[in-house]
Amino acid sequence: MSADPIDDPALAPLLRALRAPAAERELDGLDGAVRSFRAAQVTSPPPSSRRASMIFTLAGAKLGATLAALAVGVGGVATVAYVSASAPASTPDVHSSGSASPTSVGASAAARVRTSTGAPSVTATAVGPVATGAAAHGLCTAWSHVADRGKAAQAPAFRNLTAAAGGSDKVDAWCAALPAVGGSGSATGGPAGHPTGKPTSVPTGKPATVPTGKPSVVPPTVPSHQPTTTPTGKPATVPPTTHPTGRP
Amino acid sequence: MIGEDFDRVLSRARTGDEAAFARLWRDLNPTLLRYLSLAGESADEVAAETWLTVVKGLSAFRGDETAWRAWVFTTARRRAVDAGRQRTRAARAPWRDRSGSWVTSVEPDCADLVIDSLSSAEAVRIVRRLPALQAEVVLLRVVVGLSVSEVAELVGRSPGAVRVAAHRGLQNLAKIMSEQGVTLSDSGALREVT
User: Fold this and answer.
1) Chain B residue with minimum CA distance to A36
2) Range of B111's domain?
3) DSSP state of A21
4) Domain CATH for B125
């Protein structure tokens, strides 16, 4: 390269003009700018807190996904052990949720199964028939459009969803982990962030063992336990003791 | 540039101090207008939209003065690209200008420019004789004072491409200016003769 062209003396007048102090005209817009600044002050706190909460939501989602992936690892082993140890007839519950979505292969399906079964297996079974499979997409879509999740989580339909996810604060992550059949999963929280991360580690565990169970077997075992997993807890309905924390 | 005071001014503006915000605005708006004038029109509107976005995001912004400038000009460029799209849509030529380029170049004009007392508007008009990328990069590097990597991120090109564009842009401008100078002194000489 030759000498820096910026040192060319021919440029000096041009650069001087480009960097010249403000002309009167260029400061005309100050009043309008200050007005919009003032207006932004009024509405400012909500945006910033929303941003903060979004960050937490994203962090929560990431954490949830991580837990799900961990649960897959551990749960996969546990399930295999469980399956081989016990008679299939007596323990249909473990597989029920898994077999509900045998068509939708893939890591996230496995992860989803695990999040529900990885927890206390009894609780998770209660949810299987409702919140897995095709219904999950609808539920997730609906969930993503609900403003007040605290209240919504107590609606019967969402109770199953939150139970499957392991808590209303984990629904976004859970939904994000759904296979994108209808593309509904992306409608939730941070679209770009979620799907990328975890699933790679997942697929090792499951698919082979899954199809044994029949979804039809499930319901009998279900009603014994309440699927209410809302963190806010409805003391009236159910004590939150069965809360699937995702700890296997 | 605000310099040393910047951090204090910014934090005061962030908490709603109008005087502090006015200082930030006065410092940057002229440069912003000159940059946005590369599109040839509607610089004032786009600048106002830019500030509208900036004040909304101000409470969340963190960074030093260079980061601040990079942020404001990144915002400005987005608004300018939007405005450019609207223009082409209005011109019923939606298939054109897919690159996201918003700078409109101009042909050399024959206006007599007194080079030693160029206005900033005339200077921007000279810059607009460059190819769009060169014009934009020259202004962001030389006038706004952003680093190569900041400009690269802002315009969506590689740092290498930005370096080359800045270098060629300045070379071209030097050529334009020296030719302009010759023309002017010639015509001045002619005027003296007649």
Assistant:
1) B52
2) 107-194
3) P
4) 1.10.10.10
